[in-house]
Amino acid sequence: MNDLLDLSPLKARAAALVEAAIKAGADGADAVAVRGISLGAEVRNGKLEEMEHSEGDDLGLRVFTGSKSAIVSTSETDTKGFATLAERAVAMAKVAPDDKYAGIADAGLTGLAEADLDMLDTNPVDLAALREAALEAEDACLGIKGVTKSGGASSSYSLTGVVLVSTNGFDGGYLRSRHGVSASAIAGEGTGMQRDYDYSSTLHRADLKSAATVGRGAGERAVARLNPAKMETGDGTIVFDPRVSAGLVGNLASAANGSAIARGTSMLKNSMGKQVFAKGVSIVDDPLRVRGLSSRPFDGDGLPTRRLTIVEDGVLKSWLLDLATSRELGLATTAHAVRGVGSAPSPSSSNLAMLPGGETPEALISNVQNGIYVTELIGRGANTITGDYSRGAAGFRIRNGEIAEPVAEITIAGNLTDMFARLVPANDLEYRYATNAPTIMIEGMTIAGR
Questions:
Q1: Among 19, 180, 346, 393, which residue carries the largest CB count within 10 Å?
Q2: Strand duo 315-316 + 308-312: pairing
Q3: Could you tell me the pTM of the whole model?
Q4: Average pLDDT across the chain, whole number
Q5: Domains in the chain and their CATH numbers?
Q6: Long-range pairs for 252-257 at CB < 8 Å and ≥24 separation?
C-alpha cells in the first residue's frame, strides 16, 4: 500500500516525458500522469457475480511548437520509449492547425491551493470486505416487504493519483480515495414490477452510509413505486427530489461553461450580470471542499484552485473558465481546467452546489395544489443552447399539499430560462454527489400524460 501512495516515481516519469519533448524540439510541454487502482465486488441473489482488481499508470504528453500543439498518451512505464513518443508528438504538432488561445500557463500563475482537502483514506481495503458489504446491502434490500427480486448489489474502492509536470516549472500531484456501495431492488410481479436503487459514495469509508441502510433504501423506494397511476395532460408544479434536482444545477453549469460561451452556443451567452434566478438563489463551485468528491488543489492547467460563486442572489456572476477559454473571452481564468491523459484541458465544475433556501421541503409541498414530486428523470432532454427542456419522469402525485399515489409514464417540459426564474430551493441540501442541490420547486411546468 505504501508503494501505491508514493507519487514520486509517477512524477519522475512525467518529468522524463517533458524532458524528452524539449529534446525533440518542442517549444514547451506538459505531462499529466494518472495512477488508478480499483477493487470491486458485485453480488446477485446471494452469489458473487463479479470481482474486480485492476491497476495501472497512464501518461499523456502535450507539446507546443509555436501556436500549434499535439497530444499523445501511453501506458508504458519504461522511460526508454519516451524519446520516440515525444518525437512523434512534435511531428504531429508541426502539422496541426494554429490555436492562438492554447498554451502553457505563465509560471507566476501556477501553484497549489494552500488547503488540507483530506482526500485520502489510508485504511486498508480487501476484496473479502467488499464482498461482505455487497451481500449485506442485498440482504437488507430483500428484507423489505414487497421486494420480490434483487437487481444486484455492489461495493467498491478506488485510489487515484494525479500528477502534472510542465516546462513552466510546475510539479504537482495529489491522491484521492473513494468508497462506494449500491443496491438495486425489484418490487412486484409480472408487468407490475417496479425497480429502484440507492447508493453512497465518499472519499473516506467512515463517511459511507452502511450497506444495510443503502439496501433498505433501494427496497423501500422500489416498493413505494408499485401500482403507479397516469396523469392527465396539463400544467402543474414540479417538485424535484434532491436525487434529480442536481441535474438542473448541472444544466446551469453546462450553459455557463466557457467553451459554450466562446462558441456562442449557450442560452446564457448574453446573461452575465443579469438576474437569471430569483433573488436568494446562489450556486457555488468549491474545489477546496474538505472530503469533497471532486476536490483538487490545482486544475488541469497547473493553477491553484479556489471557490467560485457562479450565481449570487439570482445574478449570474461568472463563467467556468480554463486558460484557453479565458484568453479567447478576454477574461481571467477561474482555474476550472480538467484534462485526461489523452485530451487537452477544458473547463468543468468540481464540487458544484445550489445553496439551500429558507423553507423545508414539506413547507414547499404544502403550498402545491396540483403537481408531481419527481424522483426519477429519463433521457437527456435539456438543450442548453435554446433552453428547451423535456424529460420523461416518474414520482408521486401532489394533491392539495400532500404527496399521494405514485405516477409514471409522464413527461415534464418547459424552458430552462423560465424554470430558473421560477425555481425555489428548499433547505435540505446534502453533499452526496459531485453536483448537489436541495429539493427544488418550479411552478407552471407542462405535464404530458395520457
A1: 393
A2: antiparallel
A3: 0.95
A4: 96
A5: 2-221 (3.30.2290.10), 228-450 (no CATH)
A6: 252/283, 252/310, 252/311, 252/420, 253/285, 253/310, 253/320, 253/349, 253/352, 253/435, 254/382, 254/384, 255/384, 255/416, 256/310, 256/316, 256/318, 256/319, 256/320, 257/319, 257/320, 257/347, 257/348
Query: Judging by beta carbons within 10 Å of its beta carbon (0-12, 13-18, 19+), is residue 273 exposed, middle or buried?
Result: exposed
List, in order, residues 6 or more apart from 124 with CB less than 8 Å away.
1
Q: What kind and span of H or E run contains 61? A: strand 47-65
DSSP 109-149: G----S--------S---HHHHHHHHHHHHHHHHTSTTEEE
Retrieve residue 240's grid coordinates. Answer: 424535484
Give the C-alpha distances (Å, rounded to integers) separating 186 from 59, 141, 200, 321, 377.
Answer: 42, 9, 19, 43, 18
DSSP 8-state secondary structure symbol assigned to residue 108: G
Q: What is the 3-state secondary structure (H, E, C) of 200-224?
A: EEECCHHHCCCHHHHHHHHHHHHHH
Average pLDDT on 175-194 reads: 95
Predicted pLDDT at 2: 55
Helix axes 211-224, 127-142, angle to 10 degrees: 30
Under DSSP, the state recorded for 318 is -
Q: Which three cell numbers stand for residue 170?
A: 510546475
Pairing outcome for strands 424-425 and 435-436: unpaired
Count of alpha carbons within 13 Å of 421, Cβ hemisphere only? 12
Residues 6+ apart with CB under 8 A from 86: 17, 20, 21, 23, 24, 26, 29, 61, 63
Residues contacting residue 294 through CB under 8 Å, at least 6 positions apart: 287, 349, 350, 351, 434
Which 8-state DSSP code applies to residue 320? B
In whole angstroms, give the CA distance from residue 291 to residue 7: 20
> What's the pLDDT tens digit per position in 243-289?
999 999 999 999 999 999 999 999 999 999 999 999 999 999 999 99
Contact 433, 364 (CB under 8 A): no
Q: Going by C-beta distance under 8 Å and a sequence separation of 6 or more, which residues neighbour residue 244?
A: 374, 375, 376, 377
